[in-house]
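Reader question, answered in our methods column.
A reader sent in the components of a multi-part assembly and asked whether the whole thing could be modeled at once rather than chain by chain. We filled in our standard form and ran it. Here is what they sent:
COMPLEX SIZE: two components
ENTRIES:
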Amino acid sequence: MITAGIDIGSISTKAAVIADSKLLGAKVIFTGYNAEQAGKTVYEDLLQELHLQPSAIQKTVATGYGRNSVKFADKTLTEIICHAAGAHFLNPPVRSIIDIGGQDSKAIVVDVNGNVGNFVMNDKCAAGTGRFLEVMARALEVDLENLGDLSLQADHPSKISSLCTVFAESEVISLIAKGENRANIIAGIHESIASRVFSMANRVGIVPPVVMTGGVAKNIGFVKALEKKLGITPTVSKYAQVNGAIGAADLAAGLK
Amino acid sequence: MIGASKMGVGLCETAEGMGYSPDLCSYARSDIACATVNGGPIGGLPRPDMLVCCNNICGTVLKWYEVQARYFKVPLFILDTPFCHVGFADEAKRYVRRQLDEYILFLEKTCGRKMDNNRLKEVGKLSLEGQRLWQAVLNTTANRPAPMSAFDAFFHLALIVTLRGTRDVIDYYSQLLIKMKDRVARGKGAIPNEKYRLLWDNIPIWPRTRWLSQKFASHDACLVADTYTSAWCGTMKYIDENNFFDSMAEAYTRIYLNIGIDEMAKQVLEMIDKYQIDGIVMHSNRSCKPYSIGQYDIQKIIEKERGIPSLMIEADMVDERSFAESQVETRIDAFMEVIKQRKGR
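And here is the structure of the entire assembly that came back:
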């Protein structure tokens, strides 16, 4: 059975295709203004890359903030269930998932079957999300992709006390004005996000093995900061960013 | 009423323009602003002759009513009820009881006439009867399917809040009770296909009750009970109708929100069993600290004692600027998926 999962997030849109419990491929594009179009594009491009006809896909599940704009989906599910399923699919022993996407961060505890036991999502504020890092990268004139490596060079991470994105940005700007080096500022930003995620993880009661998913998992500096705070080393799959789409495709296989 | 008519934001903005902090409770902001512009759905409340408040469920009310008493230039009486972590100490009883004597003197002086003991007994009995009937109405939702939901209770609540002690309350709830019993007999539920039964905690998100009720109904979930509407009949056990004055002190003081978190959790657990609850929906209310503080602890106690999931919605009872629809929607959808997954097992 071949199934597809589409995850339309606030920043990027992801698609994955699974055939008989094996991942055939996955793809990421920017969501942009038109979520519906992004869902279609990523799906069609991926099928083309995999040399599959749309008729070959038996079921499709859509997830993410734009889930309801995927008209051709058989079902929509939230990211919570999909990330749990995706992490379980890639790494069956997993018991906890920390997902940090564009505008949400969440901590999820799953049972041995990958069913969600409990979850906590960030409160309304955008601090502690991918968008927060984007804003900071812009203020620091650093490419988003380089934040992680740069922060590893820090010798004395700055204290970013504010938990609000807008105020934290002003704080970063004043640190720049004071001549603080970039590596320390970035490391400070990572620590401030890690501290927020840490309290969420405690609230939900995470247990190892822990995996980290979502686009922010690609940031090695943040993963290290989180590891330090949690005292647990999270596993990061190379499919971390498309984990939700993989979970959606996996759940699609279970649809009747 | 201001919240439900979606007039809260405008009035809150007015209050903020007057210099009140956006962190101040939105009931206080709305009321303070409303008085100055005769706003809200009924064009403001009539001018008061006096103001009376009690701090048993709210600390903000002290300053809020002082502000209003200065604005209207009227006398203010404050009934101070000490917090009851556990039990009800004798000192607390004497302290509150003595204030009731002061309250009578205040009323006699302000109204210019003596208190009528017989009338007190009559009104007290009506009040108690109203509470009994309201509890009886709420009890009907223990049936499957529930004949009404918490969203209906938020509406019918108006009488026990504003007309307690009058005949009208008794007439209204008697009829409502007959209607609900009839729905139970006919197996008619509040939502078309009740599969999941939820409990609501905290004050409603007034401007979004319709959206929320439809959202939950779309998942075949009915909010069958809540800690809010039941608080208006939650201290009946302390009331002695042959000794109103003494028992009144206890009933006012030992109300839900003026008791320790363990005591609150105990009441929530009782409700979970009584109404056969599958999950708790908690509104972390930006305005109401006494109601929202301790929710994480109650959540943990429930998870441990009954193993049922809970959802936290961050919002405000009146100020819609604190409500983010798509974020709340994702959390509700995810919560319902978890409940369905658990129930399906």
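What stands out: The longest strand of chain B covers residues 279-285. The domain at 116-345 of chain B is CATH 3.40.50.11900 (Rossmann fold).
Send us your own complexes using the same form.
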